[in-house]
User: Fold these one by one.
Assistant:
Number 1:
Amino acid sequence: MTTTATNLYILLSALLFHQSLTYKPVVLIHGIMTGSGSMELIKNRIEEKHPGTIVYNVNRFESWSSLETMWHQVLEIGMDVANISSKHPQGINLIGYSQGGLIARGIVETFANVSVNTFISLSSPQAGQYGAGFLHIVFPGLVKDTAYELFYSRVGQHTSVGNYWRDPYHQTLYESYSVYLPYINNHIQSAKSEDFKKNMLRLKRLVLIGGPDDQVITPWQSSQFGYYDANETVVEMRGQDIYLSDKIGLKTLDKTKRLHIVTVPGVNHFTWHMNVSIVDNYLLPYLD
Ligand SMILES: *[C@@H]1O[C@H](CO)[C@@H](O)[C@H](O)[C@H]1NC(C)=O
Ligand SMILES: *[C@@H]1O[C@H](CO)[C@@H](O)[C@H](O)[C@H]1NC(C)=O
Ligand SMILES: *[C@@H]1O[C@H](CO)[C@@H](O)[C@H](O)[C@H]1NC(C)=O
Ligand SMILES: *[C@@H]1O[C@H](CO)[C@@H](O)[C@H](O)[C@H]1NC(C)=O
């Protein structure tokens, strides 16, 4: 090589090396009744397209243990994520798929020592779930109309699904029994409410991905904080009290251009994390 070529080579290597150092580590949290294996495609694609990225793929609460309560999972996985975060003072990025996105939000709201730059919620029931699609993965015999009889009880709250089951016809029971969703949504005020909001507002970016052909998250708009009113008509996030009253900071994130609502048609719930084009088009652009 000539001296000029050598110098150019050194310069380019330095630039590439620098770039690889600037990708923040990514933590992946899997969905219900599955495990870290289901998130390998996302992990591999990030590592391929953003060389040098460290990707942590959470392998706790796989398979049947994914049905353990939401708070238990938030606190356990949150301790791991806090450990990871403490090793990376520049911050981390967090991606949760399906139930994993709702666990991830619990972690963001609860752990002041977890420093998340971008949080991507990939088709997660952020505003709750009221639909048979989801139910039948785990409880084949239950129908949505009567599922509340199980979930809105002390026993029913011992399953993750019960913790975010939100029957629009039984709002009072939901408020009395549900120990997770109404709290992390600051629908019910608690001693933690202020911290929940404050921690959410530490996000640099919140990306809510969902789509009309999901067929499991019901209503699908729940992936973007939309939900049913008392008559099962969907009200979009910007018409919801959680947004209008800025309960957890969604409105502030929106006004400061940190909230990204991403709607992708043509994707079934079980394929979001299996589709390379989803990673390329909707995850990678937010990971820096
Ligand atoms: C966090 O890190 C500490 C110190 O390295 C270790 O003792 C502890 O077991 C870790 N906790 C988790 C949940 O990984
Ligand atoms: C993070 O904070 C929690 C309390 O919220 C604490 O139990 C945990 O040890 C902390 N972890 C690290 C790594 O600082
Ligand atoms: C639901 O429908 C009933 C009957 O049409 C109506 O009286 C009620 O106001 C509606 N409630 C909502 C929240 O739209
Ligand atoms: C994969 O994602 C793209 C959007 O990026 C979508 O158009 C396509 O239908 C998806 N493929 C499958 C098999 O879901």
Number 2:
Amino acid sequence: MSKKRSLGTVCIQGGWEPKNGEPRQLPIYQSTTFKYSTSEQMGRLFDLEESGYFYTRLANPTNDAVAAKICELEGGVAAMLTSSGQAANFYAVMNLCQAGDHIVSSGAIYGGTTNLFTVTIPKMGVECTLVNPDASEEELEKAFRPNTKALFAETIANPALTVLDIEKFAAVAHRHGVPLIVDNTFATPINCRPFEWGADIVTHSTTKYMDGHAATVGGCIVDSGNFDWEAHHDKFKGLTEPDESYHGIIYTQKFGKLAYITKATSQLMRDLGSIQSPQNAFLINIGLETLHLRMPRHCSSALAVAKYLKSREDVAWVSYPGLEGDKYYELAQKYMPGGTCGVISFGLKGGRQAAAEFMDKLKLCSIETHVADSRTAVLHPASHTHRQLNEEQLKEAGVDPSMIRFSLGLEDPEDIIEDIRQALED
Ligand SMILES: *Cc1c(COP(=O)(O)O)cnc(C)c1O
């Protein structure tokens, strides 16, 4: 597979590469299992001695083709699909951790991930320290412990819209001998490729722009293959020492750069089972075919609406990293000069109450727990996605109580602006 083809071509032709006479469109391998003629060969598959499909929980050709497309888009070496973005982040972290370990994460992350890291994984014995992504390297360093196994952050935080200084985070992670895991859901590889800036592992909620049509919940983990697990042998024994559940296989020795994803698939997916369904992988692939065309439109509409809101007297503040003067404009220009994402946030001078009234009056834009859809969606994070967080956690997550999260769809921007105007004025 040529690494040189451009992203738009990969969106269309990556992953599934049919041979002579095979289906042009990615086939849906709607089968739990795969047939073999000798018992011997089946045994080798179970021992990871041979690669091949045998049970869809472990691998499926439709899923693999879509993972390969996302992998190529990100410039990684291996990838796996998961049933959701939550599963992707959970596996990405647990592939490196066990009870007694610790991770450091940016506090400006998706509310569901905050719960995962600060409520659920601690119950499994893995602690998480949240840090302010804008803190200095010295500040960030203080959060690290000898048992820290990963640093986590989002390229563009949902919904805080902070832009990550990826190089800064990568430097701090590497100084402490751990990989940087970046959730690249909002930027997508069309706008930012975190591996080029030092990130080691990328995760996605494919539910968002990759699907792009609110059809399918899904996730993906991509490995750059760049992190040297053996250089930190004792920290990552799960990868560098024998896995008893595979007769003592050592992932780094047997699979080299594919060690991390092979372990995630053959161990975590085998045991925890959050697989993507082939039907849904097919839908994600159709979404991916237009990702490079949709992202610029999401971004240009977001910029137009951000500028419109900024010009209004009744709007207290507007946050959009693509907007000149935004706190994150310079970082966005560095890491994603072609565009950021289609999500903006703003607050009305009337605060929480005005936000509710405004949202109820919208006609074209709808109230939804979703972003990155082809239809414009609006949400009040403090009352919805981040409802479980207390005031302090809201602050840490960068969520102002007045914040309205507005996800620009693909409708004509003039109609969206007119809908906002009437909801504010009429
Ligand atoms: C939505 C989202 C998730 C969770 O993904 P699901 O597919 O809903 O499980 C994780 N990270 C980010 C940045 C998200 O926006």
